[in-house]
Each structure stands twice: as C-alpha cells, then as structure tokens.
Automatic annotation (TrEMBL):
Keywords: Amino-acid biosynthesis, Decarboxylase, Lyase, Lysine biosynthesis, Pyridoxal phosphate. Residues 36-270 form the Orn/DAP/Arg decarboxylase 2 N-terminal domain. CDD domains: PLPDE_III_DapDC. The keyword Repeat does not apply. It catalyses: meso-2,6-diaminopimelate + H(+) = L-lysine + CO2. Its EC number is 4.1.1.20. InterPro entries: Ala_racemase/Decarboxylase_C, DAP_deCOOHase_LysA, De-COase2_C, De-COase2_CS, De-COase2_N, De-COase2_pyr-phos_BS, Orn/DAP/Arg_de-COase, PLP-binding_barrel. Its cofactor is pyridoxal 5'-phosphate. This is Diaminopimelate decarboxylase.
C-alpha cells in the first residue's frame, strides 16, 4: 500500500521510475538475518537480482555475503565493501579474464560448473601462484516446480556438473595442486513457492555430500543456492517466511558438526521493496478491448514480456473509486509482448494517472534495456 504522502511525492517526479522502500528492505534483511542466525546459516545475497548501489550498501551492512555471476559483479561487491571472505563467484561461462580478476581479489570461493572449468581455474591459479577455493556446482536433477524458463536443476539444463561427470571432477581435483575443494553447490531454480521442493533438494545434497566424503574429499561447505519465492499475487505479504524456509534445511540436511551451510537469496530479499511507477500516456478504447498505454515498457520491466510474469497493477491516482473497467496495460515499445497485464480490472483511468506496478525489486531495474533507444531507467527512494 502506498501512503498519500508517497503518492504526493510521486506526482513531482519524472516517470517512469523504480521506487524503492528502504525501510521494507531493512525489515526483510532483519527477518532473514534473524531466521538464519537460529541455525548459524550463512546468507549470500544474489547480486544479479538487483545491484543498485543504495540497496547493496544496506545489504552489506546487514552482514550478508555476495553471490556474484560475473567479473563485474565480483568487482562491484568488493568496491561496495562486501567482505572478500564472503564473496562467491558462480556462472556457467566464466572467462579467463573474469577468473583472473577474482583470483587477484582473493574471493572466498569459485562455484565451478564443469570439469573443464576446474582445470582452467587450476591452470590460471598456478600462473598467479595462488590456490583457488572451489565448490562443485552439481546439477541434482530436482524439479523446482516453477516457471520453465527459471528452472535450473534438471538434466536438460546447462547449469552445474551432472552426476555422471563427478568421477572426472574428483580425478581433476586430485591432481590439481592449485585448487582447494571446499564443498558442493546447488541452485535448482527461482521463484519457488512450494517449500517441499527444498526437502527433495536436501535429500539429493545428502547423497552427494556422502559421495565426496567417501572418496576422501571433506565437504566443509554445503551451498544450497537460492530460489525462495515471493507472493506476487499479494504484495502486502511483504516478507517471505524465512523461518519456515531455513527450518527445512535444518531438518532435512544431514549436517556434520563444523560444516557450514550457505544460501544465495536474491528475490526473497529485494523483491517486494520496489514498485515501478509509471504515468498513463493514453487510454485507447478499442472495439473489444480498452488499452492503457504507459510511459513504462518492457525496456524498464521485462519480466511480463519474457516469462508472462504476473505483477499487480494499481491506479494510484484513483485509490478510492471502484475498479470497474478491464484494461490491457501496455507500454510504448514496438513489440506486441510489451504488455504488463491483460484484462486488468481498474478504476476508470485517464491520461496522466499514476500507475504502480508492484513487486519489482528483483530482476526489474537490472534487466532494463535501451531497446528503442530508451533512456536510463530512473530510481527514487523512500525511508519511512
Ligand atoms: N544462485 C544462483 C546460482 C542463481 O542462478 C540464482 C538466480 C540465485 C542464486 C538467486 O535466485 P533467487 O533467490 O533470486 O531466486 N530473471 C528471472 C530469475 C532468474 C534467476 C537467475 N538465477 C526472473 O525475473 O524471474
């Protein structure tokens, strides 16, 4: 819910812009940190969800580590001040330049996604006289029951080392003097709302940990990835149930004493703390459809066009009236998929009304583009 004060503030700002509620971010962080502390779990923030500087600083101050997926994310994490002992680097295609950069920054660990990558990191580390800490990202073939395009842990996906390649991994690890094996890593998908999925993941993690330990590789770190979903249907449900989520891993992981459990959460931390605020340019009444044409498009928020993702849409200028008209809410971009919602029930809407598109904190601003030579996306912050 936006306060009247928020809406009055929006009226003076040039649209479209991402509006970040920093107090909500703070509350989400506190909830996450408190819930993880109960089991002494370590949380890394998946920077890919949102690398806005202001957010990153708050996340770092809350004590989280950083899960990075490119050389630039690693660099940024260090620049923002994340403790390098809490920076991990994942990614299915790390370039030599990116690996060298991360070696030079002495990050905590590389999450390695193929046998070939292990050999490359060993070679590059040797040239720099370094020993790289590595965790093997394993593809556990566990169905995340989420949108097909954001599923990552099935045999058909490109991510991680498949179980049948693990013996080769073990062989490379044995002969690689410049690699230190520290553990195993998993990430099966994003926007997971059925928590039972994580129980299945735990069962597989226990099997793989045993596999490595039996072959003489102590598993010091179990990195279970991220994926905890948020409630897009109900953005007022602001903070995910971190306690229930962490409890599953406590109950189902066969954790040895002194073994660390690491998480890489993105969406659950930042997803609800932002809305995309846009203005109505035109209202077009067609024969069978009414269109609201916004000044924001898929260039600002790509998720609906890319994944048919649902985001709640509100007319902020008509808070009290009855929602009685159905509109297709679209952007100005030259693509038919540039649509934020079809048949959205709203109050009678006119040119100039402010529209709020909710739950855009994760994979929103970071996925914006310049297609159609659009301007850089603007941002505004509030601390209530
Ligand atoms: N760890 C790894 C290795 C990942 O690939 C991801 C996300 C995460 C952690 C964080 O996942 P989260 O906690 O945020 O679910 N653009 C898509 C989502 C892509 C997710 C990519 N990987 C979307 O808008 O839904």
């Amino acid at each position: 819910m936006f306060s009247n004060k928020d809406i009055a503030q929006f009226a003076d700002l040039e649209t479209p812009f991402y509006y970040y509620d920093l107090s909500l971010l703070q509350r989400s962080l506190s909830a996450c940190v408190e819930a993880a502390k109960v089991y002494d779990f370590h949380v890394h923030y998946a920077m890919k969800a949102n690398f806005n500087d202001t957010l990153l600083k708050k996340i770092k101050e809350a004590g989280l580590g950083a899960d990075c997926v490119s050389g630039n994310e690693v660099k940024k994490a260090i620049e923002v001040g994340f403790d390098k002992k809490k920076v991990v680097f994942a990614g299915v295609g790390k370039s030599d330049k990116e690996i060298n950069g991360a070696l030079d920054l002495d990050i905590f660990c590389f999450n390695v996604e193929s046998v070939q990558e292990l050999a490359v990191i060993n070679e590059l580390a040797e040239k720099r006289g370094k020993v790289a800490k590595v965790a093997i990202r394993i593809n556990p073939n566990v169905d995340a029951h989420t949108h097909h395009n954001i599923t990552t842990g099935l045999d058909e996906n490109k991510f991680g080392v498949n179980s049948w390649d693990l013996p080769d991994c073990a062989e490379v690890l044995k002969v690689s003097a410049n690699l230190e094996f520290i553990g195993i890593h998993f990430h099966i998908g994003s926007q997971i709302t059925n928590l039972d999925v994580f129980k299945n993941l735990c069962v597989r993690i226990n099997e793989f940990a045993k596999w490595f330990e039996e072959r003489g590789f102590p598993v010091k770190v179990l990195n279970v990835g991220g994926g905890l979903g948020i409630d897009y249907q109900n953005p007022e449900q602001q903070i995910p149930d971190f306690a229930a989520y962490f409890k599953i891993f406590n109950d189902f992981l066969e954790k040895r004493p002194n073994q660390e459990v690491h998480f890489e959460l993105g969406r659950a931390i930042v997803g609800q703390c932002s809305s995309l605020i846009s203005r109505v340019l035109y209202v077009k009444n067609g024969k069978s459809k009414n269109f609201i044409i916004l000044d924001a498009g898929m260039t600002e928020l790509m998720r609906p066009a890319l994944y048919q993702a649902y985001h709640q849409i509100e007319n902020l200028s008509k808070q009290d009236g009855e929602a009685s008209v159905k509109y297709d809410v679209v952007g100005p971009i030259c693509e038919s998929t540039d649509c934020f919602g079809k048949e959205v029930l709203l109050q009678e809407t006119v040119r100039g009304d402010l529209i709020g598109i909710r739950s855009t904190g994760a994979y929103g601003e970071v996925m914006s583009s310049h297609y159609n030579l659009r301007e850089n996306v603007r941002v505004a912050f509030s601390e209530r």
